[in-house]
Amino acid sequence: GAVVSQHPSWVICKSGTSVKIECRSLDFQATTMFWYRQFPKQSLMLMATSNEGSKATYEQGVEKDKFLINHASLTLSTLTVTSAHPEDSSFYICSGGLAGGTQYFGPGTRLTVL
Amino acid sequence: QKEVEQNSGPLSVPEGAIASLNCTYSDRGSQSFFWYRQYSGKSPELIMSIYSNGDKEDGRFTAQLNKASQYVSLLIRDSQPSDSATYLCAVNMRGLTGGGNKLTFGTGTQLKVEL
Questions:
Q1: Are A68 and A83 in contact (CB under 8 A)?
Q2: Which residues contact B41 (CB under 8 A, 6 or more apart)?
Q3: Of the candidates A95, A78, A54, which has an alpha carbon nearest to the alpha carbon of residue B92?
Q4: Which chain A residues are closer than 8 Å to B106 by Cβ?
Q5: Confidence of residue B97 (pLDDT cuts 50, 70, 90)
Q6: Separation between Cα atoms, residue A80 and residue A56, nearest integer Å
Q7: 3-state DSSP call for residue B98?
Q8: A43 to chain B: closest CA residue
Q9: Is B50 part of the contact surface with chain A (CB cutoff 8 Å)?
């Protein structure tokens, strides 16, 4: 299957700081990239969908000014959590999408906000 | 009604048995169906995709799709303890989302394969 990387794999930051997470599709060009969040023992929650060169589409209830998404190329998308707070602590997972709906997930980034 | 429904489990099966995981979906216009496996603390991993009615086999895994009944299932033959994980059913609900590659996920079924 196709490979998606994420960096960093885990991050600890102080409340009020911003954190950037990178998502790269290593061996394919992702038509679309997706950002998910998963709290412990809960299901995946889609945060936003992004296409290269255009603004991300955010799901209802996700603050676009807090979760900034940049999709600079067909292989790179970034998520910046701005002014992070403890309630933003979660497992953030990106995926690269192909035509037909197939998504390949990155390994995830575990964010802890102190 | 949830868009994609799965029994949360846990589903316990003995080692070597067949595990049967089920999923129903609400959008009759859905075209693409996926099964992902997620180990605790890890991200989802694609196991199978299926697009046409009938069965699709890949090793110990068989996906079954019945669009008339809006039902998709995953069979795992010769279950191993390493198969213990949460299995997520995902549907590309083109009819509801107006196209695109967005997937709607079920909440997952936890499978436990016991020695």
A1: no
A2: none
A3: A95
A4: 43
A5: very low
A6: 13
A7: coil
A8: B107
A9: no
